[in-house]
Design the sequence.
């Protein structure tokens, strides 16, 4: 199962991909937020499961030095709109630890396996 993770800068894509890879999943991040090709995640990444990690500007600022503001985040969100509409799991990472984000992703993936269902048949939104 090919898992692709998208979201704005500093939402946790790299960390989640690395943690899932360490557990044996084929997980990759896609830098969709930097592309004007709205379907880049579909064309290049071709996922079985699309996970969208989201973050607000205050949360991003706590995670890294961002020399950009709401306007740039809004541009990223426009570039990510198509992916967000088609994701199988959406997680707002504000206030969540790396472990909590991983747990939400694993819970979603395990639910699909337990039900003997393709993750494509499940859609979940996870928001605090």
Sequence:
């Amino acid at each position: 199962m090919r898992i692709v993770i998208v979201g704005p800068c500093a939402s946790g894509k790299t960390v989640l991909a690395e943690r899932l890879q360490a557990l044996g999943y084929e997980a990759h991040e896609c830098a969709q937020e930097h592309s004007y090709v709205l379907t880049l995640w579909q064309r290049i990444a071709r996922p079985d499961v699309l996970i969208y990690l989201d973050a607000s500007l205050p949360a991003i600022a706590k995670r890294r030095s961002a020399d950009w503001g709401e306007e740039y985040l809004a541009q990223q969100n426009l570039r990510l709109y198509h992916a967000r509409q088609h994701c199988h799991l959406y997680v707002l990472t504000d206030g969540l630890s790396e472990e909590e984000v991983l747990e939400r992703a694993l819970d979603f993936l395990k639910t699909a396996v337990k039900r003997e269902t393709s993750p494509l048949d499940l859609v979940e939104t996870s928001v605090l």
